[in-house]
Amino acid sequence: MQTTTATHAGGNADLLSGILGVEIRNEEKITAQDRLFCEKQQEMLYNVLEQIDQWYGIFTKEAEKYRESHRISYKENGEIRHTYSTADSEYKDYTVHTFKPFKAINELVSSNLNANKGFAQRIIGYFNRTYNVSVPVPEINGNTLKMGSRPHYMTYVDAVIEHLGGRSFRKTAEEELIKRFHQLVKPHRWSKVKPELKGDKISFPNIVVFDSFYYDYNRTNHVHYNYHGNISTLCEGIAFGSDDVLCGDKGMVMRLNQDNVDISGWYDLMTTNATGMKFFRNGRIDVRFKDREAASLCFNRLRLDELRLQEE
């Protein structure tokens, strides 16, 4: 456990408190690329915090000159408290107009907090984007975050994996992807059709709706705006089911224009095992694979056999 940061992350009770006294080693659950990103972010953060600390040291040393006259003291987070001087001499000799470091000290404390918050957001945001998960960024308590603290990225990785129930990012991403995919392709309550494996193809009914206005006036198959996201979700699932990757989206359908979909033939796909996609006026989309085995593998990996009609 990286204790240097568990105690320096601001005492967050929502996500971090549960892991402060527990040894959690999750480095094996992140890839070398993940680690490289985190280490680079940590290096950049430390450079900024080092500069903040240097200036903080300079200004707090200067502030000592006013300890008695302004009755200065410090909060737990390093902010300075002070009162206005009551010494008549300050007004007689113009020292009331001299520079005093109080505001600068508190601005540095604020910068320290914001830098730590930004680090947490970038680390957790990276894993959310990379693995398509939805983990909240823990709150950092600005009242208890000490100057000079140095967070370690594994504190946030541990916190995220703890939030995910100890599962790896990959496993969680797969489960969330399948959940989204099922939400899209599952049969409606009174539907008589569901995703079906047909040799080297899988048919997905009722995925899109074409806008009747464009068809009536222009004879173009324009995907209704509300259904644009459905194609990306379908592609995300197909990329995972066929090639075991998490980066699928509508961009993998070559030459697809959602404002004018060609329903006369097949669109080529950029995936290895899924080779084509065909649209139908009734909203059905068929996906073709390189062979029957690839289609069956995708069907099973996406757990499409678990979907049931109301009557089944």
Q: Structurally, how many domains make up the residues?
A: 2
- The level of helicity is 40-55%
**N-to-C span:** 50 Å
- What order do the helices and strands follow? HHEEHHHHEEHHEEEH
Instruction: Please state how the strands of the largest beta sheet are arranged side by side.
Output: 3-4-7-6-5
| DSSP, total strands | 7
Major sheet details: 5 strands, antiparallel
Tag the structure with descriptive keywords:
312 residues; alpha+beta; two-stranded antiparallel ribbon; 42% helix; elongated; disordered N terminus
Give structural notes:
- The strands form 2 sheets. This protein has a 5-stranded antiparallel β-sheet with strand order 3-4-7-6-5. Strands 1-2 form a two-stranded antiparallel ribbon.
- The chain is built from 9 helices and 7 strands.
- The longest helix has 32 residues, at 32-63.
- It folds into 2 domains: 3-167, no CATH class; 175-306, no CATH class.
- Helix 2 (32-63) packs antiparallel against helix 4, helix 6 crosses helix 8 and helix 8 (228-243) crosses helix 9.
- Strand 1 and strand 2 (80-81) form a beta hairpin.
- The protein is 42% helix and 8% strand.
- It is α+β, with helices and mostly antiparallel strands and 312 residues long.
Write the layout of secondary structure elements.
Elements: H1 3-6, H2 32-63, E1 73-74, E2 80-81, H3 88-92, H4 102-131, H5 153-163, H6 169-185, E3 196-198, E4 201-204, H7 212-218, H8 228-243, E5 267-268, E6 274-279, E7 285-289, H9 292-301
Antiparallel strand pairs: 1-2, 3-4, 4-7, 5-6, 6-7
